[in-house]
Design a protein that fits this description.
Layout lengths: L1 E5 L2 H12 L5 E5 L3 H9 L5 E5 L7 H9 L3 E5 L5 H8 L6 E2 L5 H9 L16 E2 L8 E2 L6 H10 L1 H4 L12 E6 L7 H14 L4 E6 L6 H4 L8 H11 L4 H7 L2 E3 L2 E4 L13 H11 L5 E6 L20 H9 L2 E7 L2 H13 L8 E8 L1 H4 L3 H13 L4 E5 L2 H10 L3 H4 L4 H14 L2 E3 L5 E3 L4
């Protein structure tokens, strides 16, 4: 086993001597800094990289970069202190060793992928998480308790859609909202679906991950100066992001609805590195029952366009969101150009790691596709893209314009809107809840 060692200079010799005493282990290179370590890994050297928290520039992305080259990352500390080990684990390093360990234990930690059994740990229903409200520990329910969620659903049933049952507690889910270029209404759908999920009794976190035109903050009248996802990504890179810190960065925009705003300027996209975004999404599952991701349009793997394969990739944020999602909502526009783009987008999805899509056609109207627009759209998508199930959102410009002007959701400013009714049905479909339409008829969709 070839080791690459990059640790603090004051105790490097002691650690190297200890590692060299382990049978079958060879310290092939002692790297003076992070740049040398990354260069050695890129050149194909080493089986395991041993790093310490005091290595200048070490962050979550550099740990992930080493791992992408097939080199396992193991942490090291001079004295085995809990604080140093915690710092490394927050950067995504699973195993940590120190010179005082027995030889057999060092060999085990170097060989095993997850020697301490901590990788992939997630909050479960019986775990406690940091208090986000100042009233002591709370259960990892990801938001209000089941009782309070049910109470909200019962108290405002008529206004929220006449729920016929209280939602069952399930594992937190990540819903990605994506669609092709041309402004088909991705953010409109994401914001209003998130709002409806909160009104259905599910605590919801809306995350703006659009690296081309983030607009959730403006949509909901959230201060543009709010740090949001960029601050969360930076904290993740530095190993300081935890559930309480994420909650502080995602204020409540409405009861049960938190918002993690996007980057203020599209030029700041390099701040959103894949490893950090993956960590933010994973941690978000502990903050809400449902996490809704508003993604950018492009899924081109722009890494292939760069000579430097470790350079920042603008589309990596969208690709990471799609890969981490449990449900995918694909939004297209109801006009000839929008439908053509939607067909091509659906055809490109099999090459991208993502869950099966739920297709939504937005702004459905006869003026753009002819009489009986729903039937025409359904037939076209079934013929050219094999779409069997379809969600149609009627065009309601007056309601949507009023909501945008007021910085509110359709449920708040136009509760009787036909577009709101369709988006409420979509939200109910995502969580398997029965609702009633505006005409009073019941409708239940099964999640799948």
């Amino acid at each position: 086993m070839d080791l690459l060692v990059a640790v603090g200079h004051s105790w490097e010799a002691r650690l190297v001597e200890r590692l060299s005493s382990v049978p079958g282990v060879v310290v092939s290179r002692r790297c003076v800094d992070l740049a040398e370590l990354l260069s050695a890994v890129a050149a194909g050297h080493g089986d395991v990289a041993v790093v310490s928290g005091d290595l200048r520039g070490l962050d979550r992305e550099s740990v992930a970069q080493v791992a992408r080259h097939g080199v396992r990352v193991v942490g090291a500390s001079p004295d085995g202190s809990e604080a140093r080990e915690r710092e490394l684990r927050q950067l995504g390093v699973a195993g940590v060793l120190h010179p005082a360990l027995e030889t057999d234990e060092i060999a085990r930690r170097l060989s095993e992928e997850d020697p301490d059994g901590i990788a992939g740990l997630a909050l479960s229903g019986d775990d406690e998480r940091p208090d986000l409200s100042g009233s002591g520990p709370v259960r990892a329910m990801r938001g209000p308790s089941v009782a309070s969620a049910g109470a909200r659903a019962g108290e405002g049933a008529a206004e929220r859609g006449d729920l016929s049952q209280t939602p069952e507690v399930e594992q937190p889910r990540v819903v990605a909202v994506w669609g092709p270029t041309g402004a088909p209404g991705r953010t409109t759908v994401a914001v209003n679906v998130a709002s409806e999920l909160a009104r259905l009794g599910r605590s919801t976190l809306l995350v703006d991950l659009d690296t081309y035109g983030a607009s959730v903050a403006q949509f909901l009248s959230v201060l543009d100066e709010s740090p949001g996802v960029a601050a969360a990504a930076r904290a993740s890179e530095l190993g300081t992001l935890d559930l309480a810190a994420l909650a502080r960065l995602a204020p409540e925009a409405a009861p049960g609805l938190r918002v993690l705003s996007g980057i203020v300027s599209a030029q700041r996209w390099p701040e959103l590195r894949p490893a950090a975004i993956e960590h933010v999404i994973d941690l978000s599952r502990g903050l809400a029952d449902v996490v809704v991701l508003d993604l950018g349009f492009s899924v081109e793997d722009d890494e292939e366009l760069s000579y430097d394969t470790d350079a920042p990739r603008r589309n990596a944020t969208t690709l990471t969101g799609l890969a981490q999602a449990d449900d995918l909502v694909v939004v297209g526009a109801a006009d000839p150009i929008g439908l053509q783009r939607l067909v091509r987008a659906l055809q490109s999805l099999p090459s991208v790691p993502s869950p099966p899509p739920r297709t939504v056609v937005n702004r459905v109207r006869a003026a753009s596709v002819g009489p009986d627009p729903g039937r025409r759209i359904a037939e076209s998508l079934q013929r050219f893209a094999g779409v069997e199930a379809l969600h149609l959102v009627p065009d309601d410009p007056a309601a949507c314009d009023a909501a945008l002007l007021q910085g509110r959701t359709l449920a708040e400013c136009a509760p009787s809107s036909s577009a709101r009714d369709a988006l409420r049905t979509l939200a109910a479909d995502l969580v398997g809840v029965e609702t009633r339409r505006q005409d009073g008829s019941r409708r239940r969709r099964r999640r799948g």
